[in-house]
């Protein structure tokens, strides 16, 4: 058989991270719940301890599950393969992943980060609060080059961005950042629709809680990057304990084979719903890259392979109409989060982007009537019937 790397995305989604199954006689990913591992030879144990706590990917002896876990390592190998990077480091949540990178950047001597809004509400909050111990400056993509300082250690962008689906030019930001590494939060796109590392991003971050897991039953985050960049991240994870539990790693890994099927079906559903919502009298505007209605929409053709399954729409009736729609849906779940097999709808101004002040919300297009819809893989006519009755309410 050709090496797995040379096969198509769909095939790799099914088989990546499962390369050792024939050797160990497994078919589904084994779940290794051990917290500690026997040390048979003290010299091997000592060397392994040093290697793993220093951020090595593996060692002869796993030592302790905070340092290494084989179930987690398998899903990391799978995601590195799908994202086209040498390595991937998994964490207990998307926020833990971003925070670990910020910690590594700070430990490397940097004191400043640039971040392009809009961002996921939690990321915005982490940066603005100063909790990560870095001076965070919010800029537009065009301002990146001019705002770099000698102590800038990272540029953070999100594309498509939350919740207005703005697209950000990954290659242009990477050029503008020069030697400063760029992290792309690629959660909305998944590695099926966009591969930021090929466009110059040093770190590709995913909330694996969303499309990668895909079934709404695991909180996880990953950063895909080079092996050299992965080492400090594993070190931070080992020291701070920002682990992905092996049960979560198993669920995440079981989500990957259907990632292309789920994303393609949800995206097709999204296209039909976006058109019908655009024609609905209660809706002032629909934001979906497939309609050509988002900022920098031309990037859909240059850096993405599809518009994805997330959209936002602005209700003419404002906050009251949003609250009524949230209360009226029957099939679609009124809930935050996204990227699950089932459709979810939420109100960013009242929920996920609540921490932003009113001026920032207004500047980033998060109006009182804005709804965010994560389209699932249900039958699209059933989804439309539910949306249409909710809009009448
Ligand atoms: C959910 C999400 C995050 C945070 O991930 P968690 O797994 O909830 O910690 C970050 N970025 C984006 C775009 C998200 O949707």
Describe this structure in words.
The longest helix has 20 residues, at 259-278. 39% of the residues lie in helices and 15% in strands. The chain is globular and about 70 Å long. It contains 16 helices and 12 strands. A 7-stranded mixed β-sheet has the order 1-7-6-5-4-2-3, with helices on both faces. It has a 5-stranded mixed β-sheet with strand order 8-9-12-11-10. It has 393 residues and is α/β, with parallel strands linked by helices. The site of pyridoxal-5'-phosphate (PLP) has 17 residues, from helix 5 and helix 6. Pyridoxal-5'-phosphate is lined by residues 93-95, 120, 122-123, 158, 162, 185, 187-188, 207, 209-210, 219, 221, 338.
List keywords for this structure.
single chain; 393 residues; alpha/beta; seven-stranded mixed sheet; 16 helices; 12 strands; 15% strand; binds pyridoxal-5'-phosphate
Short description:
The chain is of the alpha/beta class.
Low-confidence stretches: none
The portion of residues forming beta strands comes to 5-15%
Shape: globular
Strand arrangement in the largest pleated sheet: 1-7-6-5-4-2-3
What is the count of DSSP helices, taking H or I runs of 4+ residues? Answer: 16
Helix content: 25-40%
List the helices and strands and how they pair.
Blueprint (H helix, E strand, L loop, with lengths): L8 H7 L5 H4 L17 H12 L16 H14 L3 E5 L2 H14 L4 E5 L4 H9 L5 E5 L4 H4 L4 E7 L11 H8 L4 E4 L4 H4 L9 E5 L13 E5 L1 H14 L5 H10 L3 H20 L4 E5 L11 H5 L6 E6 L2 H11 L4 E2 L9 E3 L11 H6 L6 E5 L5 H13 L1
Parallel strand pairs: 2-3, 2-4, 4-5, 5-6, 10-11
Antiparallel strand pairs: 1-7, 6-7, 8-9, 9-12, 11-12
Helix pairs in contact: 4-11, 5-10, 14-16
The site of pyridoxal-5'-phosphate has 17 residues, from helix 5 and helix 6.
């Amino acid at each position: 058989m050709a090496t797995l790397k040379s096969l198509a995305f769909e095939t790799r989604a099914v088989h990546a991270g499962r390369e050792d199954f024939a050797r160990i006689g497994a078919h589904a990913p084994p779940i290794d719940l051990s917290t500690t591992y026997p040390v048979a030879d003290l010299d091997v144990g000592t060397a392994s301890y040093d290697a793993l706590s220093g951020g090595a990917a593996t060692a002869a002896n796993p030592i302790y599950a905070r340092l290494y876990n084989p179930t987690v390592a398998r899903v990391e190998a799978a995601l590195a393969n799908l994202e086209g990077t040498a390595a991937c480091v998994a964490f207990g949540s998307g926020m833990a992943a971003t925070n670990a990178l910020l910690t590594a950047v700070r430990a490397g001597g940097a004191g400043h980060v640039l971040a392009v809004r809009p961002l996921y509400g939690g990321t915005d909050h982490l940066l603005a609060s100063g909790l990560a111990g870095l001076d965070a400056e919010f800029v537009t993509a065009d301002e990146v080059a001019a705002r770099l300082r000698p102590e800038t250690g990272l540029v953070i962008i999100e594309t498509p961005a939350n919740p207005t689906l703005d697209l950000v030019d990954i290659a242009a930001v990477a050029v503008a950042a020069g030697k400063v590494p760029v992290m792309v939060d690629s959660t909305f796109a998944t590695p099926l629709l966009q591969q930021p590392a090929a466009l110059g991003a040093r770190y590709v971050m995913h909330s694996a809680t969303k499309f990668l897991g895909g079934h709404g039953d695991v909180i996880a985050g990953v950063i895909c990057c080079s092996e050299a960049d992965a080492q400090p991240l594993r070190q931070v994870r080992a020291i701070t304990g920002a682990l992905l539990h092996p049960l979560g790693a198993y669920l995440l890994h079981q989500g990957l084979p259907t990632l292309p099927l789920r994303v393609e079906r949800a995206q097709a559903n999204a296209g039909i719903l976006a058109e019908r919502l655009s024609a609905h009298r209660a809706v002032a505007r629909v934001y979906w890259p497939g309609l050509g209605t988002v900022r920098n929409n031309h990037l859909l053709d240059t850096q993405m392979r599809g518009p994805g399954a997330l959209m936002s729409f602005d209700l003419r009736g404002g906050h009251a109409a949003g609250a009524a729609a949230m209360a009226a849906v029957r099939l679609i779940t009124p809930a935050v989060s996204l990227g699950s097999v089932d459709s979810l709808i939420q109100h960013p101004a009242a929920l996920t982007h609540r921490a932003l002040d009113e001026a920032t919300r207004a500047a980033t297009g998060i109006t009182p009537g804005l709804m965010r819809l994560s389209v699932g893989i249900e039958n699209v006519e059933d989804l439309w019937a539910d949306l249409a009755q909710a809009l009448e309410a």
